Amino acid sequence: MNNETLLKVSGLSRQFGGLMALRGLDFQVRRGEIVGLIGPNGAGKTTAFNVITGTIPPSAGEVHYAGQRISGLPPSRVVIAGLARTFQATSTYPKESTADNIYRGMLPRIRESLVGPVTGRYHRDLAASDVPAEIERILKITDLERWARHEAGSLPYGLQKKLGIAVALATKPTMLLLDEPAAGLNHEECNELARLLLRLRDDHGLTLLLVEHHMALVMSLCQRIVVLVQGEKIAEGTPDEIRQHPAVIEAYLGAPDYAHA
Ligand SMILES: Nc1ncnc2c1ncn2[C@@H]1O[C@H](COP(=O)(O)OP(=O)(O)OP(=O)(O)O)[C@@H](O)[C@H]1O
């Protein structure tokens, strides 16, 4: 990890009618960090992801990525800037194979792709002849090689979630936003996920921002944690600082998975 700020979220707010889902959120993620974004249900975590990735516009505030202002850009441009995300629910094409789903994630990178006009907007770093090797590379990173030809919808749930990560990786991001990657996973799948995320950071240089309710995972993986309650940041710090933070303890009082983390 170095000290370069990769993601800078400044005064980010989002209103839905009368509800302030995010209120002036400020935080930064440095290159090479794994940062957790936690908070009780309805705290605004997914809204924060949606605004950062351009799925919905902010009501106020800005997001900068690698020095570039990305707030206001559509999701396709945010991905090109290097920021990819995964979704809470599995979001792959169930009738297509694992490899074809990965290929879809890769499409905007392919030079002289027949899909859409060549506008020069994309970083077309892949020649069509290099696509099979790139799919193999992603399958290998995510340990999905033996599932390459299986229909995505036929994979066990844990592998479908992993495929969601593989599709995001196919865009060649420098940062990955993961929305509840451990939800629905059993103990062994969860350990495997933790190993994958550490490999992504250590061997592939990725920076990770993680929304997750699985506190043991968050506490063991993240260098820093940002805590949201009702749209507002109530604390930020190392796992040890967060565990002992009075406002966090109060917000989570009675939440059994936090108490046992
Ligand atoms: N499109 C929307 N329209 C209206 N209200 C919304 C919309 N999206 C989110 N909200 C509201 O904003 C608040 C924050 O929701 P959000 O999904 O961001 O929370 P969260 O922290 O991700 O919760 P969870 O942990 O349950 O996923 C909630 O009160 C939610 O009902």
UniProtKB/TrEMBL annotation:
Coiled-coil features, chain-numbered ranges: none
GO molecular function: ATP binding; ATP hydrolysis activity
A Pfam short name: BCA_ABC_TP_C
Record's keyword terms, sorted: ATP-binding, Cell membrane, Membrane, Nucleotide-binding, Transport
PROSITE patterns, A to Z: ABC_TRANSPORTER_2 (PS50893)
Assigned GO CC terms: plasma membrane
InterPro entries: AAA+_ATPase, ABC_AA/LPS_Transport, ABC_transporter-like_ATP-bd, BCA_ABC_TP_C, P-loop_NTPase
Domain ABC transporter positions: 7-255
Keyword tRNA-binding in record: no
Descriptive protein name: Amino acid/amide ABC transporter ATP-binding protein 1 (HAAT family)
Organism the protein comes from: Paracandidimonas soli
Lineage per the UniProt record: Bacteria, Pseudomonadati, Pseudomonadota, Betaproteobacteria, Burkholderiales
